[in-house]
Amino acid sequence: MHIQTAKAASNGADSWDLSRYAADFPILAQQVRGKPLVYLDNAATTQKPAAVIRTVSEFYEQHNSNVHRGVHLLSQRATQLYEDSREKVRAFLNAASTKEIVFTRGTTEAINLVASAWGRETLKPGDEVLISWMEHHSNIVPWQMVCQQTGATLKVIPINDAGELDLKAFESLLSTRTKMLAITAVSNALGTVNPLPTLIEKAHGVGALVLVDGAQLIPHAAVDVQALDCDFLAFSSHKLYGPTGVGVLYGKEAGLHAMAPYQGGGDMIRTVSFERTTYAALPNKFEAGTPNIAGAIGLGAAIDYVSGIGMNAIAQHEAAILEYGTAQLLAVPGLRMIGTAKRKAGVLSFVLEGVHPHDIGTIVDMHGVAIRTGHHCAQPVMDRFRIPATARASLALYSSRADIDALVRALSKVKEVFG
Amino acid sequence: MSEFRELYQEVILDHNRNPRNFGVLEDANRFADGTNPLCGDKVKITLRVEDGKIAAVRFDGMGCAISTASASVMTETLLGKSEEDAQKLFESFHDLITHGSAGEVDKSLGKLKVFGGVSEYPTRIKCAILCWHTMKAALDGSQEPVTTE
User: Fold this and answer.
1) Which of A22, A203, A290, A313 has CB 3.0 to 4.6 Å from A181, enough for a Cys bridge?
2) Which residues of B touch A417 (CB under 8 A)?
3) pLDDT given for residue B6 in this prediction
4) In contact, A325 and A395? CB cutoff 8 Å
């Protein structure tokens, strides 16, 4: 009997396995192209649990109104829900105050906000902004633009063949000229997890600020911004099981306070006359115009959802699926993994000998398996590995070993066609 | 298998494995570069036009099976055609891959008809059409870089 119990466990009932939560995600129950959907494009966007969808639709059915203005009941309710959501984000990140939580359109806008509002005021010729070779375009281009505008210089930390940061090069690039280290926590194209505590400590050592691109971190691990001591952290709701079109910029209060506004408009002002405008207090100073109210409230519901499961449990589950997926994919003849860092999270990026990633993507899609193919908005990474693109399977809390098995079966069909 | 055999027909797989007219024509008098910014595919088309006819044509670059085969079959088809015929073929090929082979298909397309299946895959149409846009730009003498945007 004992043996039978152990066997049952190895068939998918492991204590770490969270894939049963897939039942909470209505979209995953469907068939695509006549096959059960296997969704492995979570680094692009995650699916939404019923609780998030219900929260957003309840908002529009029962509470919809603008925030921070009307005296009527619906406006009070909408404002309360919106600000409750900000508090959920604060608690989730362990930020010191809700003044440090700015709602944006997403990670991209959060980074642009800092590059513009901090960079344009502060940077001058001779100053340096340090990024890494593995950045998403959204953590390259805003800094390139602000460097062009201010005469500052953009420096890039190289990566090794495994897709890990070259820490020696990082230290030699770091100097008192470095004003900002803008670095991803987890590479979207390679899955590499960067050693944030070391990077942040050393950058602070030369007086630089640190912005963390947390788009691929926040969905996969518990984060405490005070322990991390980063100056800014950006992430998107839609990669954390929440709605699209909303994201968060966390910034230390003193830093945000010292920054000029990003955009001008309603909601970010205290008083306006044609001669002079005074700005609202934090965080409203950075939230010009009507925000994505339903989106922010939906993000709050997503945070409730993942907190109910536990970020540590999610991290443990995804690590186990990543390990299983790595072993299964490496057994596929002609497959080469791109990104073999010692510490990885959520991403399996690969190429198949003799087959372009786009053809892989189309053929596995025929078998109901959704993966991403292309340069993943990280063209410098592709250039570094001298490839035009990769195929990328990326994980979420609902990913299962069965999903990996379906991908491997579909890849064998690719071999049949291109054999 | 049958569903994606319609896309990956034997002719396409063959031209992907053994692309015809691959490389750069040294004595070209028309040329253009094309890119697909969405996927990073790049193609260079070089042609030699003599007395209004395509005397030689080559393609160079790196892409998926659809884009490689499309460029390979295109060069085979264009060889010996007049500039005017090449422009007409561009229009017919464009119709074929956007509307499929269900409707009226220009008979002069010949082997190009194997790309009719691409119409079922909207995200792959750009893969098949990039080399044609680039060829057209080369014939038209356009100085603008060609993109599928």
Assistant:
1) A203
2) 4-5, 8, 13
3) 78
4) yes
CATH class of A14-43+311-418: alpha beta
Is A230 assigned a catalytic role?
A: no
Q: Which residues contact A37 (CB under 8 A, 6 or more apart)?
A: A27, A28, A30, A31, A368, A370
Residues of chain B predicted below pLDDT 50: 1-2
- Please tell me whether the peptide bond between A125 and the residue prior to it is cis, using omega within 30 degrees of 0: no
Q: Do B64 and A418 touch (CB under 8 A)?
A: no
Residue A164 has phi, psi (to 5 degrees) of -105, 150
pLDDT score recorded for residue A293: 98
Neighbours of A236 (CB within 10 A): 28
Q: Which of B5, B64, B121 sits opposite A356 (nearest CB)?
A: B64
Taking CA atoms, A66 is separated from A166, A267, A278, A284, A362, in Å, by 48, 11, 22, 14, 43
Domain with CATH 3.90.1150.10 in chain A: 14-43+311-418
- Helix (H/G/I), strand (E/B), else coil: A349: strand
Q: Which of A370, A377, A382, A408 is catalytic?
A: A377
- Measured in residues, chain A has a length of 419
Q: Which residue among A366, A388, A416 places its CB closest to the CB of B41? A: A388
pLDDT at B147: 78
Q: What domains, with CATH codes, occur in chain B?
A: 2-144 (3.90.1010.10)
Q: What is the ipTM of this complex?
A: 0.87
Domain A52-308, CATH among 3.10.20.600, 3.40.640.10, 1.50.40.10, 2.60.40.1120: 3.40.640.10
pLDDT given for residue A88 in this prediction = 98
- Count of alpha carbons within 13 angstroms of residue A228, beta-carbon side: 28
> Residue A70's pLDDT is what?
81
Phi, psi for A143 (deg, rounded to 5)? -75, -35
Span(s) in chain A for CATH 3.40.640.10: 52-308
β A277-279/A35-36 pair status: unpaired
At residue B39, the pLDDT reads 72
Residue whose token pair is 């405490």: A224
Mutation site for B-interface testing, chosen from A358, A376, A379, A386 by largest number of B Cβ within 10 Å? A358
Rounded to the nearest angstrom, the minimum Cα separation between A410 and chain B is 11
Q: What is the pLDDT of residue A10?
A: 45
What parts of chain A have a pLDDT lower than 50?
Answer: 1-12
Contact list, A351 vs chain B (CB under 8 Å): none
B90 close to B132: Cβ distance less than 8 angstroms: yes
Which residues in chain A have their CB less than 8 angstroms from residue B69's CB? none
